[in-house]
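Lab notebook, bench 4. Still working through the backlog of constructs that have no structural model yet. Next entry is a single chain of 278 residues. Request: give me the structure tokens for it.
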Amino acid sequence: MIVDWTAPPLAGGLVAAAFFVAQRYKRLHEAERAASRVLAERLAGTERRQAIWVVAAAIAHDLKNPLHNVQLLLEEASDETDPARRSELLARLRDNTDRAAARLSDLARAGRAPDEVERFVDLSVVLEDLLARLASAARESGAQVVIDCPRGLLVRADPLALSSAVENVAANALDALRKVRGGRLSLSARQSGEMVQLTVEDDGPGIPPELRERLFTPFSSGGTGTGLGLTIARALARAGGGELVCVAAEPRYTVFRFTFPGRMGRLTVTANGERIAS
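Model written out:
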């Protein structure tokens, strides 16, 4: 009799309590989901703003080298009286402005698959073109630029990405060599198994110890630059299956080393002077 009288109210009470707890849990869960959505929206907004800023800074950095060359060439051309030399400077001016425009237009390729833009490129040809682009900056820093790369050393890469990555590292080295007039920048490449190693070495002042651990961290700069050059160079190398590391950072001996997928091949020159690696 006691059970008959107490069981139904107790069961009803338990059901009511369970229903109350379930409703409370549901409200808490909905509140947590709403808070998560608000937080996600805020984080997404922050990430979008940061991403836009990073992209803008990267573009500015990528344009810095050709625009700096334009400035130096304009200064040389304004003081040059020899017509032949002046024509040469103007041709180089056009080349650098074309490069700046190409950097912007080639941003459209960023989302394409690597196989669509990569091909085998003769590294010696890339370095020869780079040497011409660095000539003005080398004269300004009083540095000697030496390239040691065998003909027919092929690298599988996007030509623009390869050139930009190496130029970023070389430009950093020339900037450091301004502090030691008469320095030397050396770029040497060798085949190592199925990879190609490209070493960029300078005898400048080295890298301060406080910067060595964050060399490839975005916006880490010991000067007035953006601090993106090495970050971009490593990202470009890795995007093509390669790598960029700092081997040494001592005074008079600073070494960066690229590795790229590559092989030895041959270079064919067509009738119109175009160079094709195969």
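Notes after review: The longest strand covers residues 253-264. The two ends are 98 Å apart (CA to CA). Flag for follow-up if needed.
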